[in-house]
Write a structure and sequence with these properties.
The structure holds 2 protein chains of 2 kinds. By secondary structure, chain A is α+β, with helices and mostly antiparallel strands. Among the domains of chain B are: about 45 residues, 2-Layer Sandwich (Uridine Diphospho-n-acetylenolpyruvylglucosamine Reductase, domain 2); about 110 residues, CO dehydrogenase flavoprotein, C-terminal domain (Enolase-like, domain 1), CATH 3.30.390.50. In chain B, strand 11 and strand 12 form a beta hairpin. Chain B is globular. The longest helix of chain B has 22 residues. In chain B, the strands form 3 sheets. A 5-stranded antiparallel beta sheet of chain B has the order 4-5-8-6-7. Chain B has a 4-stranded antiparallel beta sheet with strand order 9-10-11-12, sandwiched between helices. Chain B has a 3-stranded parallel beta sheet with strand order 1-3-2, with helices on one face. The N and C termini of chain B lie far apart (about 55 Å). In chain B, helix 5 runs antiparallel to helix 9. Classes of the chains: A alpha+beta, B alpha+beta. Chains A and B meet through strand 4, helix 3 and helix 4 of A and strand 1, helix 2, strand 3, helix 3 and helix 4 of B.
Chain lengths: ~190, ~325
């Protein structure tokens, strides 16, 4: 085999919020730990570290992932967006605005993950993806309306130990409605 | 976590060469199960070969009207694919019933087939487990087994297979394709998972060093009228305590074709062929649905804390076949 000698660390270039960072990582390093401990991007939170709570949710190539089960070395070449990168300068992302307005949190620890997840949920729904709450998944049935039941199912990978779910569902619904209203106005 | 080497493969021959049939090496797909098991010490690979960049990320129609699903297609892309939703809706429903949106974006079809049981004893390296350490024993038989197998298990292991996707693949006679350094091969889904017997650590019939390259679904008109239903201890984001993939073609009130597979009741997705045989040609009514379920479940050997699964599966068969019958009458 003509491969390089075995090594337990690598130099990787991570693209985070549009900026490239080159660093040497032990292969065991998760994307979550690289973001927090190496790049000082502490907005992404560590909850369970087992892929079960969603606190560490980030966007990878525009799709929500749990960064605690993503090895940093395997994230090279992908576009990573964290909560620090969703606003445009001082202008908050509409999902951030909706969480603020409707109190979609209590302690706030799960909020960065909730917001990253919600941004993707709204995109997934707009792309016509069904969910486990969708009764008829056939394409002929058309996209399901984004009901509270749909939102709860689609957001079920994000736990909130304060139990702010009622407001979180309202915030996601508001942001989704604002997005489609804006699309219609632009059309 | 043990230190490990990491390589990224760009084509199938390269991936096989990088793995080099080394028993200490593992292919890395989405990592949603493997990385978790590495954190807990259940898996201790010396080398990971990342296969996420392999050109196996397409879902394509086959000339005969089936579908070929690449091994690195993510659960999300599989579930959202229009032809999957149109021709095999139970497969979309099964995939969407599993894990969370985040995990479905990461997890791959090949990895889904090879994921490990969520038995608590398997996951805890301080406990005996015949699957993890052959010959060490199975504490689940006399311990915590309320969500363990009732069909096809043995005294050596009563763990269940956790996949939802696999239940639909079992119902629709999927064929698993793989590559080895000696060439390609295929395994019908019925032969893919090995019986438990006294070797619960041997889970699949894949040759050593093989890479799953895809799954082919043969054409199945009955599958267009199918459903997946999952029962769990909370409304979402939990493993099944029982699930069913069902497809039904009723003509003039008689069962013309039927597919049934059960999840969370055995070491593998459980194709209910005995029930299917009872149903073909029978009047489509609740009494016959129950009789078919009873015929399948006659082989069940429940433990003290999981006998409820036999009743649960019987009820699921009757409920889902009744629902499909009502829908086809509309």
């Amino acid at each position: 085999m003509s491969s390089a000698p075995s090594s337990t660390y690598s130099a990787v270039t991570l693209t985070v919020n549009g900026e490239k960072h080159t660093l040497t990582v032990d292969h065991r390093t998760t994307l979550l730990d690289a973001l927090r401990e190496r790049l000082d991007l502490t907005g992404t939170k560590k909850g369970c570290d087992q892929g079960q709570c969603g606190a560490c949710t980030v966007l990878v190539d525009g799709r929500r992932n749990v960064s605690c089960l993503q090895l940093a070395v395997a994230a090279e070449g992908r576009e990573i967006t964290t909560i620090e990168g969703v606003a445009e300068g001082d202008r908050l992302h509409p999902v951030q605005e909706a969480f603020l307005e409707l109190d979609g949190y209590q302690c706030g620890y799960c909020t960065p993950g909730q917001i990253c997840s919600a941004i993707a949920v709204i995109e997934e729904h707009a792309a016509g993806w069904p969910s486990a709450a969708t009764d008829d998944v056939r394409p002929e049935a058309g996209p399901p309306p984004l009901t509270p039941e749909e939102i709860r199912e689609r957001m079920s990978g994000n736990l909130c130990r304060c139990g702010a779910y009622v407001s979180i569902v309202e915030a996601v619904a508001r942001a989704a409605a604002d997005r489609s209203a804006a699309k219609e106005a632009a059309a | 976590m043990r230190e490990f080497d990491y390589r990224r493969a760009h084509d199938v021959p390269g991936a096989l060469a990088l793995l080099d049939a080394d028993p200490e090496a593992r292919f890395l797909g989405g990592g949603t199960n493997l990385v978790d098991l590495m954190k807990t010490g259940v898996e201790r690979p010396a080398r990971l070969v990342d296969v996420r960049d392999l050109p196996l990320d397409r879902v394509e129609s086959t000339p005969d009207g089936g579908l070929r699903i690449g091994a690195t297609v993510t659960n999300s892309d599989l579930a959202a694919h229009p032809e999957v939703r149109r021709r095999y809706p139970a497969l979309t429903q099964a995939v969407l019933a599993g894990a969370s949106g985040q995990l479905r974006n990461m997890a791959t079809v090949g990895g889904n087939l090879l994921q490990r049981t969520r038995c608590g004893y398997f996951a805890d390296v301080t406990k005996p487990c015949n699957k993890r350490v052959p010959g060490s024993g199975c504490p689940a038989v006399e311990g915590e087994h309320h969500n363990h197998a009732v069909l096809g298990a043995s005294e050596h292991c009563v763990a269940t297979h956790p996949s939802d996707m696999g239940v639909a693949l079992a119902a629709f006679d999927a064929v698993v394709s793989y590559e080895t350094p000696d060439g390609p091969g295929e395994l019908p889904f019925a032969d893919f998972y090995l019986p438990v017997g006294d070797t619960p650590h041997r889970e699949t019939a894949l040759p050593p060093g093989a890479l799953i390259t895809g799954v082919t679904l043969p054409p199945a008109p009955v599958a267009a009228h199918s459903r997946y239903r999952k029962v769990r201890e909370r409304a979402s984001y939990a493993f099944a305590i029982g699930s069913i993939a069902a497809a039904l073609d009723v003509r003039d009130g008689v069962v013309h074709d039927v597919r049934l597979a059960f999840g969370a009741v055995a070491s593998r997705p459980w194709r209910a062929r005995t029930a299917e045989r009872v149903l073909i040609g029978a009047t489509a009514d609740a009494e016959n649905f129950a009789a078919a379920a009873d015929a399948e479940l006659a082989a069940a050997r429940p433990l003290p804390h999981n006998a409820y699964k036999v009743t649960l599966m019987r009820n699921l068969v009757v409920a889902e076949l009744t629902r499909l019958t009502e829908e086809s009458a509309r």
